[in-house]
Amino acid sequence: MRKIVVLSINENPIYQFTLPLVVWSWKRIGWEVMLFHNSKESGDMRFLVAKTIAKFGLLYKANIFRDIEGYRSDTIAQISRLYGACFAEEGDYLLTGDSDMMALSDYWKFDPKNITVWGHDLTGYQQMPICYIGMMAERWREVMCLTNSNVQELMKRDLEEMPDSGENGNQVNRWCTDQRLITKRINEVQFEKEFVHRGVLANGYPMGRIDRSAWNTYHPNLVDCHLPHDIHNNDETFMKVMRMLHSVFPEDDHTWFAEYREEFKKTIQ
Fold first, then answer.
1. Nearest Cα to 60, choosing from 6, 133, 132, 20?
2. Is 262 part of any domain?
3. 56-112, pLDDT tens digit by residue?
4. Residue 180 is part of a domain; what is its CATH number?
């Protein structure tokens, strides 16, 4: 069984920059990566980002798609992660993730017969968090009613069904369109569901997470890292992240990331 984490980006350089590091972290623990990229241009993602990812042979598959009139680029990039099964094969296991969320351990254990939702407790058992929801590709097709492989068409169908998903919708609701949609769809099906509770620290952040808003690398059981948004242009932040990498992955060589950062800075000047 192939394990695939589904990520997405648009043209925002913040998420483009962190993508190679996030993909590297998943590959390190045995997961392939499927990427959805919402691009306004006719070209592919930034050459440097693509080249860095290709260097490690990290991507299982990349899918480029265009804008949908009336919807913001970030909204359609976020929701695209729910359509990975359009391009997966029978027997693949798909897990949704974020392009700025590194995997720090092999935390994601699952029964392939079930729909598994990690961290439902982090939303007060309301929305099912996009980080992380997993199920077999064939189950994803049923849950998301993937009647064909035209992702553009399927996304438009589902966005029209969701209040406040349009570019003029309520900002908070719009940002959570993907979570609101998958919560609705999972609640509508009768398949067996497993909820893996994450646990919350006294500061309100998930157990085992190094978070950009509450940076602390001393967790007894590390799970993931929500990366800062200014790694590429803030030397202090960059050094903080490098110290984290050396601490969590002491046996790995991280010079590639430093070299990549220098190249990236040149591309956006």
1. 6
2. no
3. 665 666 777 788 999 999 999 999 999 999 999 999 999 999 999 999 999 999 999
4. 3.90.550
User: Looking at the predicted structure, is the pLDDT value of residue 47 above 90?
Assistant: no
**Residues 246, 248, 251: CA angle, nearest 5 degrees:** 60
Return the ∠ at Cα 209 (arms to 144 and 126), rounded to 5°: 40
- Specify whether the CB–CB gap between 6 and 97 falls below 8 A: yes
The tokens for 224 are: 């993931």
Task: Return the structure tokens found at 250.
Answer: 């002491």
Place of tokens 């699952």: 110
In a domain, 243, yes or no: no
- For residue 9 the two structure tokens come to 């980006």
Q: Is 207 exposed, middle or buried (0-12, 13-18, 19+ CB in 10 A)?
A: middle
Domain count, the chain: 1
Q: 0.90 exceeded by the pTM? A: yes
Q: In the predicted model, what is the mean pLDDT of the chain?
A: 91
Pairing of strands 193-196, 224-226: unpaired
Q: Token digits for 187?
A: 């609640």
For 222-243, give one letter per residue: b (16+ CB within 10 A) or e. Answer: bbbbbbbbebbeeeebbebbbe
Rounded to the nearest 10 degrees, how much is the dihedral formed by the CA atoms of 262, 265, 266, 269?
A: -160
